[in-house]
Amino acid sequence: xxxxxxxxxxxxxxxxxxxxxxxxxxxxxxxxxxxxxxxxxxxxxxxxxxxxxxxxxxxxxxxxxxxxxxxxxxxxxxxxxxxxxxxxxxxxxxxxxxxxxxxxxxxxxxxxxxxxxxxxxxxxxxxxxxxxxxxxxxxxxxxxxxxxxxxxxxxxxxxxxxxxxxxxxxxxxxxxxxxxxxxxxxxxxxxxxxxxxxxxxxxxxxxxxxxxx
Length: 213
Fold this sequence. Notes:
By secondary structure, this protein is of the alpha/beta class. The chain has helices at 5-38, 92-107, 128-137, 151-160, 200-212; strands at residues 50-56, 61-63, 69-71, 80-85, 115-120, 144-147, 181-184, 189-194.
């Protein structure tokens, strides 16, 4: 028996519709699987936070809490946590310092292969003595440098990293500044940006990935 052309046409339309439904369902399933695997705010490398796209991190040269000259580029070969703070900060900076200490503890022996740098945003109040006292108070004594300098030395660094710092000659106890934390990889590239709401587990997770690269 020959199939009528109308029946054949209807069967073709139905088959096409079923195929479209299957394709859409497969696409949705794969999208959901990808989302579940990477999680929210996670890039293709598995890193959490804002992806900085492997931009080369601008180098700088400052002095740390021990009076030793420090440059960002001298730490090539290990991940770097770069943040900005001031020693007399009443809220965010002490909390960030405590988080960094907890991350060091969470990393265990791997913490020896991660460098943490804090660039001052208060060239007036952040003396060498204040930087050393702040570091000791927050148990940041290993693989940690609190970097200080004059306004002329610090302001170009603030600009390079899109951070607002203290005004020259200001003696205010409160300094308005940008909450910023950058993760820089072993090759000296900016990989991730965090604001002050990052968690210990996020930072630990990302550093473990950068250490393994």
